[in-house]
Amino acid sequence: PLVSMTEMLNKAVEGKYAVGQFNLNNLEFTQAILQAAQEENSPVILGVSEGAARYMGGFKFVVAMVKALMEEYRITVPVAIHLDHGSTFEKCVEAMYAGFTSVMIDGSHHRLAENIALTKKVVDVAHALGVSVEAELGRIGGQEDDLIVEDADAMYAIPSECEQLVRETGVDCFAPALGSVHGPYKGKPNLGFERMEEIMKLTGVPLVLHGGTGIPTEDIQKAISLGTAKINVNTENQMASAAAVRKILAEKPDLYDPRKYLGPARDAIKETVKAKMREFGSSNRA
Ligand code: G3H
Ligand code: ZN
């Protein structure tokens, strides 16, 4: 069923595992991620950035596509459709109106007071509709669609500010930037685990780890043990699908039927997602 993230994340904290947010880019991503979740018997969060929604045909189209596929595949595991890095109050409301069951309001580029005020405004509307909300503090480096943060501007979240934001807004989960990066890492990730632990203790809400691509398994496990219940992955699926397309087109230069190269891309995404679900411990937790 289509649900908010609230219950699946609270269960994840309790069971010491994390639910993956896998971003949608097109039809094949949506098919692959839903099938992977069902086959792994895992809860799943479908992340949709504003840029990806625009590419696919808008929020309403994305919701209709997800619902139709869930019916076609007889999906029984919990699925959330989540706006990833929502940029404004208006975008969040538009997503909720279209049927999204969850939204992230990314006010991390604002000053604390503005971030809190904006997040609170989104929470008030969302909770009246049974929609869950994720907020962010600090700055996650790298690039995702329209969102670019230079390395020099990447910032670790400050625990006392995190406590204040969560307390004053009532968000359902929270993404403190602690050194993770969107896209591939240059070198080894250097995650702020001490702050992560402190922030979990101070806020008491499930934590979210953005930039899940390229984080070593031991760091994933450590993050989960410190209260991380949601891990976002996009680039890794993009790379796997692009590699599959490159390989088949190189092998068969005469190939032109999109189903013949997008089918293998879809298979690659599905395998990548299944492996992540096992790594995050969400398999057989639906
Ligand atoms: O919000 C989406 C994620 O943080 C994706 O990060 O593309 O590095 O896996 P990634
Ligand atoms: Zn992100």
From TrEMBL:
SUPFAM superfamilies: Aldolase. Its cofactor is Zn(2+). PROSITE patterns: ALDOLASE_CLASS_II_1, ALDOLASE_CLASS_II_2. The gene is fba. GO terms for molecular function: fructose-bisphosphate aldolase activity. The keyword 4Fe-4S does not apply. This is Class II fructose-1,6-bisphosphate aldolase. Pfam families: F_bP_aldolase. InterPro entries: Aldolase_TIM, Class_II_FBP_aldolase, FBA_II, Fruc_bis_ald_class-2. It comes from Effusibacillus consociatus. It is an enzyme of class 4 (lyase). Keywords: Lyase, Metal-binding, Zinc. Its EC number is 4.1.2.13.
